[in-house]
Structure prediction request, 230 residues.
Amino acid sequence: EIVLTQSPGTLSLSPGERATLSCRASQSVRSSFLAWYQQNSGQAPRLLIYGAFSRATGIPDRFSGSGSGTDFTLTISSLEPEDFVVYYCQQYGSSPWTFGQGTKVEIK
Amino acid sequence: DVQVLESGGGLVQPGGSLRLSCAASGFTFSNYAMNWVRQAPGKGLEWISVISDTDGYTHYADSVKGRFTISRDNSKNTLYLQMNSLRGEDSAIYYCAKGPSWNYVFGYFDYWGQGTLVTVSS
Prediction:
């Protein structure tokens, strides 16, 4: 099973700042099959990125994904107030599909 | 609009059974793989099962294999999860999640329901 480790656990930033979230895999993720989700408290997750860098339908271009192999990054270029929530990475290159433990982006 | 709506959650005793349902609308249900993903209170996400679009292929996480059964009725646009031999660690919000294509290999989730809460406790 591929273990995904997200860092940092909590990221304290101000609106307008750039956020960089990391997701490291315990082994290489096949074909960069890596997705990112956003989850607001009490709500269902929302798909942001799939295939490591492809934005899902309706996702603003301030969200971007990069990386390959074992190291992946989600970047939010300029934080909006609604971006201060929890983010999860997920790999689907190897069964069982697994999620990271999440990074919380909070207002500084 | 794509919508998936879970139902069937509730309180059940350890060792008991429960069947969850997920009603889908806004897309051609029979053309897509479907999944169940759960989230224990205050915890992260755990994928637990997938079913292919029409050929009945299913796959499970080890944590539920042999106890849970995923199925679908394409004529009713409905996904199911039969949960048997329930344990305390199965307590979670259970989400129905749509796959992006008929091919279950693409195991990410482009639409999610709001979830249904399952509590296993005596």
User: Anything to note?
Assistant: Chain A has a mean pLDDT of 96. The CA atoms of residues 91 and 97 of chain A lie 6 Å apart. DSSP finds no helices and eleven strands in chain A. Chain A touches chain B at residues 33, 35, 37, 43-47, 50, 56-57, 88, 90, 92, 95-102 (CB under 8 Å).
